[in-house]
Every structure is written in structure tokens, then in C-alpha cells.
Design a protein that fits this description.
The complex is a heterodimer of chains A (about 375) and B (about 200). By secondary structure, chain A is an alpha/beta fold. Chain A is built from nine helices and 17 strands. Chain A has three domains: about 90 residues, Beta-grasp domain (Ubiquitin-like (UB roll), Roll), CATH 3.10.20.30; about 100 residues, Elongation Factor Tu (Ef-tu), domain 3, CATH 2.40.30.10; about 130 residues, Nucleotide-binding domain of ferredoxin-NADP reductase (FNR) module (Rossmann fold, 3-Layer(aba) Sandwich). In chain A, about 35% of the residues are buried. The chains are: A alpha/beta (about 375), B mainly alpha (about 200).
């Protein structure tokens, strides 16, 4: 009995002692600030405590820069220029995500920078417009066996000014971190300011790879539930010239930005030629085709081509077959010099399609892609 | 085992009974952080510091609290040694991290995310457990902790130097990056056998 008593006392005593020591040390060693963070030369200035990461400090102050991995230095999205940062300050964990120019001009991953002094930052201006929204699920519709269309109504604030090809981040509850954020493209056209629509493909557990946290969460939602999202984010800049042909190529679950672009462009820029090429594996993966064919009948400058790459015997299909880059090659003219392309799909598809477009003389800077 | 002078223990822990090359303890950070000499020196110094200090603290805790013959409690709590040693080491690494961050930005940048690796560095726990098994007194324990740390640092700096050279040689692809380090470590361990007989534990 005595043994149990003493072992508990000694064990707990040691831990409490060590904890107290660490607290005292933190008190003396970690500079508590407050530090001033200045964004874009005075556009936003706020004070924050020392010791946390820059990403956390920005998020706490409602400045949402994109971060798909939640601060683990694996996605490389949370880039910010720290003005007096030297190339030698960059941690080994960040270097993989930086170009030479970024290394020189002080670009850092915000999740790897600890706030230990006053910082002056440069971030893309539109990120300051990013806000956090409460939203309510209005409806969820199964588009295929693994893709759901999820509509959200914004509650507070109730309007989001998003533009062509923009995306949002969904806060997914997580037992370890409170929440993690996952990025999803907006599939609704830009005229809908109060409602957001997402196309979410479920990533089930596959061998040792666990099920996708974001897609599992979104697929489990039902109408009426409330979620938190931040946005809008996006780097795509649409060429609004009505003579420039917009070529959209998507595959798998890469439909959402295409739908947003096509519906928005047909709405806002009459006469602008738009083509959609979409690659699926079998007829079970095809969705939205009826809607696009209807649109193509109404607008003669809009073309739609779906191609199946992996048809099983007995499937009925009278469209294109084979990988989507073959259809792109076949249906587009040989000279695409002035035109613009938006690609969204798996990396291999993006590579193959980029090659075809470059062969057709499209300039590399006119090809925008979103790999997932 | 109080017949050996402490400096013999110190030298033996560095050369003849090198904690990494003869016990193969502390391999994880040894493999991960040995790409550049500069980083290896930084991590090595942190290990020397943590290893010396934790062997002193753990010696005091072991003989004042856990060992029934010498403790003030008189109860046999030796079964707690693993968990208590680990807790002390973990807290100490946190402390070192805070100090390093405060004192030198450059060292903190060089070590980056690797500092937490010391927390689970088995070389440090190994040194604490071996000093208990060998029944060293306080001075000898600290000497052994210091020697283990220096020996580990010697090994990681040596391998980092070799790896810097290896980058420009044609390593068979099948060995990969880690495989060749294991092979070189084995050869280095054999080379250290050359020190055998100078002193022994």
C-alpha cells in the first residue's frame, strides 16, 4: 500500500516539478511581446504575442492566407514575404517550396516563422479581403457514386464577392488540432453571392492511406447543419477579351472550377468562346453532361466534349473515348496562340494536356492549372 | 565500480565504448541530421549538454528518490526509473530549445525542426540507464554522460563530413541515401575497434 502511495507521489511530484520549471523558464526566455505586424506597408497593422507561428498570429487576427496542410510545411501555400528576412533564415523545411527568386526576396512559409520581433510583411492584397463565414448546408445531391454537390447558404457575413475560378477553405473539425482547413473550388457562377456550391469527391480509405478528412466530413453533412468556411481565394485571372477562347480541361473530381468559369463567362461576357473537355473513367463517373449539352444548344460559342478512358464491356456511350488530352488534340485548331486555358485534375492529366497545348503554340503563361 | 578514475570513464565513453558506434544508440537523429557538418555540430553540442545535465539530474533522482538503499523514502521505486528519466529528458530538451532560440538565431535556424528529435534520442536515455547499471557514483556518472555526448557528437560530425564528400561520388542507386550511411557507419564502428585496449569500462 505504502509502495503505491509513494510511487504516485514521486511520479506526480517529478512531473509537476518539471512542468513548473518549464513554465518559469518560458517566462524568462520567451519574449512575450507584444510585437507589431505590419502588412503591405500599413494596410493592416496589429499587435500579437510572441512565441506562436506567424500563420497562427495572422489567423487569430482574421487574416486568412491559404494553408491546405494546416501548418505542417507540406503544402507550401502559406507564403508571405517578410521584408527584412535573409536567405539564411529560411529553414530546411521551407526550401523545397521556394524558387530561387523567392529565396532571395525573403519569402517564407508563414507556418514556419516564429514571431520573435516586429515583422513587416507583403501578402497579395486580395487576401486581406478574405473573411471567415458561417454557412448553412442547404442541400446535398449525389452527382455520381462518389461525388456530391453541396450547396451552402452564407449566414454571417451573408455575401462573398468571389471571382472566376476562386476557391474557399472549409474548417474541418479535427480531434487533435481543433480544426484543419481543406480547400474546395466554388462551382456556383459568380452572380450567386449568397450561396456557394461545392463538388466534393469522397476519398475512402485505400490500403494504408486513411480516408480523406475533408471529404469524409463534407459527405457526412446533411441539410441544416452549420459549418465554417473562409474565402475567397484564387490566383486565376480571366482574360475578359470576348475574342479570346477559354479552354477548360478537367478530369475526375476537377469539375467545380470549370462549372464556375463556364456559367460565369456565358453570363457575363456574351459571345466569348468557351470549350469544356472533361475526362471520366466510365459512364458511372459522368455528371452535369445534360446541363452542358442544354447550354451548348443555347450558346453556339460553347462546346462540350466528355471522354471516357476506361469503359467496361456493355457500357452505352456515343461520345469520345480515350484519355482527355487526345480529345483536346483532336477538337482544337492547331494554333492557340492568343487563347487561355484552365486545367484542373490529376497531375498526369495536367502534364499530358499541357504538352498538347504547348504543341499547339499556346504560351505557357496562358495555361493555368490546379493539380490535386 | 568505483575503482576507475573518472577521466578513464570519460575517454572510454568517447572512444572505446562509443555510445553510437558500439551500442548503436541514437541512430534516428544520427541518420536524419548528418547531412551537413554545421548542423551536425549544432545537434552534437545540444546532445552533449543534455546528456551531461540529465545524467546528473537523473543520478540525483535515482539515488535520492528511487533506490531503496540510499533514498530518503526507503521504498523500492526503481521500477519508475524509465518513466522518470524520460520525463526529465523531455523537459530538459524543451528547456534547451528555449535557450537556443533565445541565445542564437543562427543555431536555431540550423537545427530547425530537428531539436525535438533529441527528446526521443535513445543515446541519452541509454547513458542514464547504463550509469545506473554500472553503479557509478555522481562524478563518474556525470563524466560518463559527458563522454557519451562527446562520443555521439564525434560520430555524427565524422559521418556528416563523410556524407558531404559522398554527395559527389557515385553511390549504387540500390543503397540509396540511408543505406550507404549505414554501411559507412558499420565501417566506422570497425575502425573504432582500433581504440580497444587503450582504456576499458
Amino acid at each position: 500500500m505504502e509502495l503505491f502511495l509513494w510511487s504516485s507521489i514521486v511520479f506526480c511530484g517529478t512531473l509537476v516539478g518539471l512542468g513548473a520549471l518549464l513554465q518559469v523558464a518560458a517566462r524568462f526566455l520567451v519574449d512575450p511581446g507584444p510585437f507589431t505586424i505590419d502588412i503591405n506597408g500599413g494596410e493592416r497593422v496589429f499587435q500579437t504575442e510572441g512565441g506562436s507561428t506567424l500563420l497562427a498570429a495572422l489567423t487569430d487576427n482574421k487574416i486568412f492566407i491559404p494553408s491546405a496542410c494546416g501548418g505542417q510545411a507540406t503544402c507550401g501555400h502559406c507564403k508571405a514575404r517578410v521584408l527584412d528576412s535573409q536567405e539564411s533564415d529560411v529553414l530546411p523545411t521551407e526550401k523545397a517550396f521556394m524558387t530561387r527568386q523567392e529565396l532571395r526576396n525573403g519569402t517564407r512559409l508563414a507556418c514556419q516563422v516564429k514571431v520573435k520581433r516586429d515583422l513587416a510583411l507583403r501578402i497579395p492584397g486580395h487576401l486581406l479581403a478574405v473573411k471567415q463565414y458561417r454557412a448553412e448546408v442547404v442541400s446535398t445531391v449525389d452527382l455520381t457514386y462518389d461525388i456530391k454537390e453541396i450547396r451552402l447558404r452564407l449566414l454571417e457575413p451573408d455575401r462573398m464577392d468571389f471571382s472566376y475560378g476562386h476557391y474557399i477553405q472549409v474548417n474541418v473539425p479535427d480531434p487533435d488540432e481543433g480544426y484543419i482547413s481543406r480547400a474546395y473550388s466554388i462551382s456556383a457562377p459568380i452572380r450567386e453571392k449568397n450561396e456557394l456550391e461545392l463538388n466534393v469527391r469522397l476519398h475512402p480509405a485505400h490500403g494504408k492511406i486513411p480516408a480523406g478528412k475533408g471529404s469524409s466530413y463534407l459527405h457526412s453533412l446533411t441539410a441544416g447543419e452549420e459549418i465554417t468556411v473562409t474565402g475567397p481565394y484564387g490566383e486565376f485571372e480571366l482574360d475578359q477579351d470576348p475574342n479570346v477562347h477559354l479552354i477548360c480541361v478537367g478530369g475526375g473530381a476537377g469539375m467545380a472550377p470549370m462549372k464556375n468559369l463556364i456559367l460565369s463567362v456565358l453570363d457575363t461576357i456574351p459571345g466569348k468562346p468557351v470549350s469544356l473537355f472533361f475526362g471520366c473513367r466510365g459512364t458511372a463517373d459522368v455528371f452535369y453532361l445534360d446541363m452542358y449539352e442544354e447550354l451548348a444548344r443555347k450558346h453556339e460559342h460553347f462546346k462540350v466534349v466528355y471522354a471516357l478512358s476506361d469503359m467496361q464491356e456493355g457500357e452505352q456511350w456515343n461520345g469520345e473515348t480515350g484519355f482527355i488530352h487526345l480529345s483536346v488534340d483532336k477538337h482544337l485548331p492547331d494554333d492557340l496562340r492568343p487563347h487561355q486555358a484552365f486545367l484542373c485534375g490529376p497531375p498526369l492529366m495536367i502534364e499530358a494536356v499541357t504538352e498538347v497545348l504547348l504543341d499547339k503554340n499556346m504560351k505557357p503563361e496562358r495555361i493555368f492549372y490546379d493539380k490535386y | 565500480m568505483d575503482h576507475q578514475p573518472f577521466w578513464i570513464i570519460l575517454v572510454a565513453a568517447i572512444f572505446t565504448n562509443n555510445i553510437l558506434l558500439s551500442y548503436f544508440l541514437g541512430m534516428c537523429s544520427f541518420l536524419a541530421v548528418s547531412k551537413r557538418v554545421e548542423t551536425a555540430v549544432g545537434l552534437g553540442m545540444a546532445v552533449v549538454f543534455v546528456s551531461t545535465c540529465t545524467s546528473a539530474i537523473n543520478w540525483l533522482i535515482y539515488y535520492e528518490l528511487l533506490n531503496p538503499e540510499t533514498s530518503i523514502l526507503g521504498v523500492d521505486l526503481r521500477f519508475l526509473q524509465f518513466i522518470v528519466f524520460i520525463a526529465v529528458i523531455a523537459a530538459f530538451v524543451q528547456l534547451v530549445e528555449m535557450i537556443v532560440e533565445k541565445v542564437s538565431d543562427q543555431l536555431y535556424t540550423a537545427l530547425g525542426i530537428f531539436l525535438p528529435l533529441i527528446t526521443v534520442n535513445c543515446a541519452i536515455l541509454g547513458a542514464c540507464l547504463l550509469m545506473v547499471i554500472r553503479e557509478y557514483d555522481f562524478v563518474r556518472s556525470v563524466a560518463y554522460g559527458l563522454g557519451s555526448g562527446l562520443g555521439w557528437m564525434l560520430a555524427i560530425v565524422a559521418i556528416a563530413g563523410i556524407r558531404e564528400r559522398l554527395r559527389f561520388s557515385h553511390v549504387p542507386a540500390a543503397l540509396g541515401e540511408t543505406g550507404i550511411v549505414m554501411v559507412v557507419t558499420g565501417i566506422m564502428a570497425m575502425a573504432f575497434i582500433g581504440f580497444a585496449g587503450i582504456v576499458s569500462l
